[in-house]
Specification:
Blueprint lengths: L2 H21 L6 H8 L3 H13 L3 E6 L9 E5 L5 E7 L3 E8 L4 E8 L6 H17 L7 E8 L1 E4 L4 E4 L7 E3 H5 L6 E5 H9 L9 E6 L3 E7 L2 E3 L29 H5 L12 H9 L3 H25 L2 E5 L3 H4 L3 H11 L9 E3 L6 H16 L2
Bound molecules: zinc ion.
Amino acid sequence: MPTYNTAELRRQNRNRVFRYIYGSDTPVTKQDVAQNLNLSLPTVGQNLKELQEVGLLETQGTFHSTGGRKPRAIGVAAGVKCSIGIQLSKFHIHIVCIDLRAKVMAQLIVERDFDDTDDYFQFIASSLETFLDENSIDRTRLLGVGIALPGIPDNNRGIITLSRTLSSKDISITKLTEHIPYPCFVENDANAGGVAEWWNHQEHENMVYLSIQRGVGGAVLLDGVRYMGHHQHSGEFGHMCIVPGGQRCLCGRRGCLEAYCSTARISTDLGITREDFFEALEVGNPDYQKIWNDYLDHLAIGINNIRMVLDCDIVLGGVLAHFMAPYLENLRARLKAISSFETDGEFLKLSRYLSWSTCVGVALHFISEFIENI
Ligand SMILES: [Zn+2]
């Protein structure tokens, strides 16, 4: 057998051992790994030693023993690498740093209007450097910087076609990333949010991620694989017509879900912030209550349509998710009322990372790439 095959086999075993430990919520023993991966104890022992030597695994205490030496509890040394996610939206820049296990280590929101100029791109790069300094993030551990924005990246042509929530122009990926001295990756914001949601989920899972912010979009996971569509337009739930001839949408059509459920409707359209809206709602402002009822009615129609097509769990994310916990049951009750099939609305869940899903998801690009190559 040629030696490269042996080397490749060894790499694959090491990778399987790491992934097994990575996929476990709690630390494991050498015996657990050997048994579940059907590998011999010496093979597992050798791999654990190698992975520990390069700092990817660590001993996290011991397990109780029924006799003899207590087995070591082995877990991932999550802090050994990190990745940055940046989300660009019309009025803000969100930055997050996650560790190898997708745990958020630091986060920041900067107010700055999106602008397709070199000034803005330089501002992103300098904000990132300040963020790294202020949070004492070790740059030698940084795998890369993911950038998510409402647009469709075309990596072959090196451009991003921006959605109308930002502008209608194409922008150059090189210009966007040229001031950032780390590996960069650019992704659509809603897709990135989906990635965060189904990270470490089951292999054959079906799920929809519905992102509600100024733009409404999402992503579809079918049988554990992201479904992109023929033109990368899959998951554009915001432009599903829910009211024929209804409100004008930024896409030029009428009655789209986005025209009713963009967060602009509960913020900039009223000349207030989202925080102002929900604070006033909480103390019973009747005008806002009326708007919110109408908003939830339309959102329920949109969610019900998605559910009718795909019949799977729907995870609600984007900036709206941050405020939704107190209203989730109310929205589920609306879903129950309009569904053609019996449901308690429990298929609708709130995002794990709430309004940080997009940042986490785009940062995961580099974590995923790193794990694949262990
Ligand atoms: Zn539209």
